[in-house]
Amino acid sequence: AAKQTGEPVRVWSPELDEHASSHAQLGAEMRTALDTGQFRVVYQPIVDLETGSVAAVEALVRWEHPERGLVSPVQFVPAAEQNGLIVELGEWILRTSVEQMARWRAELGDAGPGRVSVNVSARQLNRPGFAATVAAALADSGLPARHLTAEVTETAVFEGGQAVIALHELRALGVGIALDDFGTGHSSLGLLQTVPVDTLKVDKSFVDGITEAGRQAVIAESLMHVSTGLGLSAVAEGVETAEQAAALRARGYRLLQGYHFGRPVADPDFDLVRTTVDLL
Ligand code: C2E
Ligand code: CA
Ligand code: CA
Ligand code: CA
């Protein structure tokens, strides 16, 4: 049943439909979505080829819109960044993920994932007090900081000094820091000198062509050298085939993430993931 909003009835037109999918429209509906619990967090495994275990999971937000169905974060995260709601949404995602991770620790122990990796947007990171928000979420859930990683993009860090301060505060708490989509930004290598990072997430664009001895393979190989040389871990993103996994493994990658090992789901089956790794 349609909600009674007191607004005039709108008749469908191509123009209206186009407007309805705009950032502004999504942004306006996001407030209600937050208040009525339309967001979900799903988790995608990051596997360790050496141990055959799920080293971590990445938390990814989903919007189950009552009329539009599933709306992609590619559409609504930028809108939420624009209207500022990403701060509240991001804190909800953080708290939900940290609580879920605490449950897995309690239920599965070392048979479960070792970490949850949560995406943090530029707007969150650049707002003073972000590290305190993280500390409070950890304290409330009882999860030790070493089981949490913050995934930040190069652009978010590049934006300002506050972001760098926040990263140092997170590091001091014991939270891991991963540079997301590594290699696609403006100053990837330069950032590694100033920012406390422990993990590089090597972008899917370098994984796609890894089996074809071309430029992407050379770059993926170089990024592994950088990561090893600096004592960082590297996660290869978007691994879709066993061939890509084998090619990455041959180049020293041991942490892999992608549809080949598991899609993002509400409650991943960690045993199933382990079986896929064992088959490699
Ligand atoms: P990202 O952080 O780079 O996340 C990885 C994206 O790649 C996810 O898309 C994931 O579902 C997808 N993916 C994983 N494995 C594969 C694969 O093998 N093949 C392909 N084609 N795709 C794969 P998703 O969940 O749609 O998220 C898209 C982007 O939206 C994320 O990119 C991130 O930038 C943003 N996002 C998602 N969740 C959050 C969140 O909780 N907070 C914030 N701030 N941003 C988020
Ligand atoms: Ca990410
Ligand atoms: Ca990524
Ligand atoms: Ca990406």
From TrEMBL:
Q: Which domain of life is it from?
A: Bacteria
EAL domain residues are 23-278
The name this protein carries in UniProt is Bifunctional diguanylate cyclase/phosphodiesterase
| Organism of this sequence | Paractinoplanes bogorensis
